[in-house]
Amino acid sequence: MAQLLYPSPTRKAFITGSTILTTLIVTIDMTITVVAVPKMMADLQAGPDQIAWVLTSYLIASAIMMPLSSWLASKFGRKRVMMISVATFTLASVACGSARGIEFMVFARIIQGLAGAGLIPLGQATLLDINPPEKQPTAMAYAGLGAMIGPLLGPTLGGWLTDNYSWHWVFLINLPVGIVAMIGMLAHLEVMDDSLPRFDWIGFLTLTLFVGCFQLMLDRGEAVDWFDSAEICIYAGIVALSFYLLVVHMFTKANTFLRAELFADRNFAIGTFVSTVIGIVIFATSPMLVMYTENLLGYSALQFGLINIPRAVGTIMGLVIVTRVMKLIDARILLLVGLVCSVVSLFIFSSLNLQTDGLPIMIAGWFQGFSGGLLISPLSALAFATLSPMLRNEAAAIFALVRSLGQSLGISAMTLISIQQTAQVSGRLAEGIRPDNPMLEWARPGLDFGDQATAARTMGEIWRQATMVATIDTFWMACMIALATIPVIFLMEKQKLGQARPGPSVDH
After folding, report:
1. Max Cα separation, the chain?
2. Are residues 281 and 426 in the same domain?
């Protein structure tokens, strides 16, 4: 293999800029459609179960394609695969924005998910390859910029576009961004592996079954009452069997699709676990905050976007600080500070109530954004520090996949816990709504139990109070998970980031 030659500063700027743009449009599309769902349902004449596939199909296609993208990049060249992916993603976005029926919309979303899946991990691997070791921490900060800002910007941008134009522009806005990213990608270097072994179909199919059914189980569970449904039990059985076959195949065969040596690296294995936790405590808590502010406090999409600004500011501040100090101190200290900030933010979130104004939410949001800015870059740098550059494509794909699955798992688990807690608390509160309760008589004297309007208002208030209790309990659970993860980061080796390694072959 030839030694990697680093590009000129101008060429590097084009590569970095286009990589950030591609990461941004992919991560924005993961969340931007959520606020447009009600209007899409009306225009596409789709029911709740049908419209859910607009979100589910994208996530499943992305999860399945993400690990395959590393093999395609190694086989056909990273630059070629990324350019085709951006072009296909952009065209699929136009197709989504032009859809007039739910069937075509779901088909276009599947293509969009398949095309965009590899852009984040391959972009991360690209930024590592074009920078010398001493500048790789800064490169990881750039990679984290798009990954962190996208999910924050998505709901606000989607709400503004939907309210002021139409839901079609939620997708059509990707067209100019995709074109600019394509132009920037012309500067990319071509990286490929001439010694790639034969494609491992068994490993790919077992991983695809595991990831696809796992994502389906998480996305469909709430709608069909989880394991009381035969559908979810079937998914769970396929997940268990495919995972068993995948692990056995990975450790008993050579040159497998998912290579065992990735997880033999201690830093990568632990970093992948911590990345899963980050997916839960930072990204998966965002939908809970949206539900709290919009459903319980009555905030509009624009108001939610405004109180979310400190979170974006905190993210940028964390990324800037990381680029300055990451080469000077132990990266594990940055991870420690990041997790502590995450604990603080979740503790504040768990102290909210129905009379809370925007200030505590903004303070907690800043801490959460700051923690994300501190965590993403050092964690990626530590996880990849001891890996061979030849494993970067695959490692980046698995790293991104696990974080995505952690986010999906966290959202599903928190939603389930919130629903169960809401039902339990509603039941306990409803028990006290009776004429012989002296506290109720003191608080609501003369309450007419026979009036239907009064009963409806009472039950509505019970639901609000129960949902509030369930929400803060869920934030408290996430806080404890973040706190318990702190000791794990010190199991990672203290690695001096920036040791030179031979790079992959590069075709200029």
Report:
1. 86
2. yes
d(CA 95, CA 312): 30
Structural domain of 391: 260-430+451-499
Q: Tell me the one-letter amino acid at 161.
A: L
Residues 466 and 391 grouped into a single domain? yes
CATH code assigned at 79 = 1.20.1250.20
3-state secondary structure of 192: coil
CA-nearest of 327, 331, 376 to 136 is: 327
C-alpha 332/C-alpha 378 separation (Å) is 7
Report the amino acid identity of residue 333.
I
- The answer to whether residues 294 and 406 touch, using CB atoms and an 8 Å cutoff, is no
Distance from C-alpha of 312 to C-alpha of 104, rounded to nearest angstrom? 34
Give per-residue pLDDT as tens, 198-245: 777 787 888 888 878 887 787 777 777 777 888 888 988 988 998 888
The C-alpha atoms of residue 309 and residue 282 are separated, in whole angstroms, by: 16
Helices (H), 432-451: 438-443
SS3 of residue 191 by DSSP: strand
Minimal CA–CA distance to 486: which of 334, 315, 294? 334
Token output for 9: 């500063």
Same domain, 359 and 471: yes
Does an H or E element contain 360, and which? helix 358-385
d(CA 65, CA 118) in angstroms, rounded, equals: 7
Find the mean pLDDT for residues 244-252.
Answer: 84
Distance, CA of 154 to CA of 442 (rounded, Å): 46
CB atoms within 10 A of CB 148: 28
Question: Residue 304: CA atoms inside 13 Å, Cβ hemisphere, count?
Answer: 26
Q: Which tokens go with 161?
A: 């576009």
Question: Concatenated DSSP letters for 405-427?
Answer: HHHHHHHHHHHHHHHHHHHHHHH
Query: Do 471 and 292 meet the contact criterion of CB atoms below 8 Å apart?
Result: yes
The number of beta carbons lying within 10 Å of the beta carbon of residue 438 is: 7
Distance CA 348, CA 479 (A): 10
Between 291 and 501, residue with greater pLDDT: 291
Instruction: Say how far apart CA 58 and CA 114 lie, in whole Å.
Output: 8
Q: Taking Cα atoms as reference points, which of 101, 103, 112 lies closest to residue 171? A: 112
Residue 63, beta-bridge partner list: none
* Amino acid occupying residue 385: A
Residues 217 and 82 in one domain: no
Q: How far apart are the first and last CA of the chain?
A: 14
Span 11-63, pLDDT tens digits: 888 888 888 888 888 888 777 776 677 777 778 877 766 777 777 778 778 87
Last residue of a domain, one of 199, 222, 237: 199
